[in-house]
Design brief:
Layout: H1 2-21, H2 26-46, H3 51-70, H4 73-76, H5 78-99, H6 109-133, H7 135-159
């Protein structure tokens, strides 16, 4: 699994680095939007949608976010978007933690799909806004996430006894 992760990271870096270091934000926003649309497709598949419906949902997410961002509609409402996203994350996170993993399947598929798509949209918006703030800021945030992921992977391999999600 490590070999596959390293190869994937190197291939993605070949596309990411030119977009990341471009003086304008648009190449980075476009590349990450494609990745977020692919994540939307994957989320739909994980929630039981067929290939066609999942692909449509992922593309729809990408088109909707591109339309909102390039139409400058999100810029006018950005503080409110972050407030709503933060409150939703806090409240829904508490509800999900309280109910536990076993209750996840009891949530209606439409709610799971909508929640996942909204979280993916917020993640894309956060990436683009971080890049807009500055390259050093974005790289510091990404480095923190990468280091946490690497430490969790190796910590789990070294000290873990049970898989967190054995069915995945």
């Amino acid at each position: 699994m490590l070999k596959q992760r390293v190869i994937t990271a190197l291939v993605l870096l070949a596309f990411l680095l030119p977009a990341l270091f471009h003086p304008a934000v648009v190449p980075f926003a476009a590349l990450t939007l494609v990745l977020i649309a692919a994540a939307g497709w994957e989320w739909a598949r994980l929630n039981g949608l067929g290939t066609g419906a999942a692909l449509s949902l992922g593309i729809g997410l990408g088109v909707a976010m591109a339309s909102l961002w390039w139409g400058a509609l999100l810029q006018a409402w950005l503080p409110q978007v972050w407030l709503v996203a933060g409150v939703a994350w806090f409240v829904l996170g508490a509800v999900l933690l309280r109910r536990g993993v076993a209750c996840w399947a009891a949530w209606p598929r439409a709610a799971r799909l909508a929640g996942g798509m909204l979280l993916l949209a917020a993640a894309w918006l956060a990436l683009v806004e971080a890049r807009r703030i500055g390259l050093v800021y974005l790289l510091s945030v990404m480095t923190l996430v990468w280091m946490a992921d690497i430490a969790a992977y190796f910590g789990g391999k070294s000290f873990g006894r049970r898989k967190l999600a054995p069915s995945i």
